[in-house]
Amino acid sequence: MADSLRYAETMPPVFTLTAGPVDAYPEVLRALGTTVLYDYDPAFQAFYQEVSRKAQSVMGVDTPPMILQGEPVLGLEAAAASLIAKDDVVLNLASGVYGKGFGYWAARYAKRVEEIEVAYDDCIDPETVRRYLTEHPEIAVVCVCHHDTPSGTINDIDAIGAIVAEAGALLIVDAVSSFGGMPTSPAACKAGVYVTGPNKCLGCPPSLSLVAVSDAAWAKIEANPHAPFASMLSLKDWRHAWKETEAFPFTPSVAEINGLNAALDRYMDEGADRVWARHALTAAACRAGIQAMGLSLWAVREEIASPTTTAVRMPEGVDAAPVMAEARARYGVSLSAGRAETLGRLIRIGHMGPTAQPIYALIAVAALGGALKAQGVDIDLAAGMAAVQIRIDAA
Ligand SMILES: *Cc1c(COP(=O)(O)O)cnc(C)c1O
After folding, report:
1. Please, which pLDDT band fits residue 147 given cuts at 50, 70 and 90?
2. Is Flavoprotein one of the keywords UniProt gives this record (predicted)?
3. Domains of the chain
């Protein structure tokens, strides 16, 4: 390929097929550029209430979720700080980098953190959780990451949630990169605190957290004397902010609320079932192509591979970084690396929001396959591309 045709790092990519941040929907980008109202103007207060109600409806909860003013790491840290009290024993479930990381936050607030950890290409067996909780009735809070994005693997949080509820403990769920891209809700996994955000499958830029809290979790938070208040980490401050009668504790991110509104409208207009189906098909087509090329998924079993991200295991002796750089330079396609333990060992293709369209699986497989070939890796690119198309057309 002629040097002049390659994409310089300073040029924007042609396709951003990353695992978050992701491309935002055009409707969202337009909304971000609309009028920024004064937060105490009655028009904004009514609008905020309406957006809160839409978020409530999309999340399937009884009261509106809290909209915190920072990307979902804020929601996750706030969940740990608010729900976990000083004398709590916490069970953290770690099947990847995010799950493991939550344990460090939990340790800041808990008396003790216990952990069930599995290999980062596998998932947590709910029966292991059941046995653990039976043997350790002192556990008050369990923490789990639904889709551990750096591994592209899914934990069965609905099964885990049922077990945690039966044991009388409360569950904190990180559903940041799954919510809006597959069937999942706070009710289905009986979450105490369920954290997500609009910046993955809902197709917004990174900016806000959406946090749903159950009645039982509120009772525990209200009884926790150390739960943050008058703080950016506070859930308590925002509990009633959506109500007409309440003031905002701090200025809400008005422009981002405009963007969130557009994303929620788009999601509801298309219909959740259709949105989930195109995420699932894009991922299934991508997996078919990856395997037909002669590559392996990172996930030990295809059943646990995420519908919102495909993590591709690098062949023995192949480092992911030069392959990703080649895909970017040769085709203008931006892909995601691993994180921490998975860094260098896999490449991730995101199927989130606007890029969860089946035809993007073809682009991803073409770019990844072409880059690997250019790096001297022997793969069957044509077989991979054919498999993607066959899978799409069979749907
Ligand atoms: C994206 C994401 C978050 C938010 O964290 P960042 O690293 O700041 O993007 C949290 N949890 C999961 C599982 C995520 O995918």
Report:
1. very high
2. no
3. 13-23+272-393 (3.90.1150.10), 26-268 (3.40.640.10)
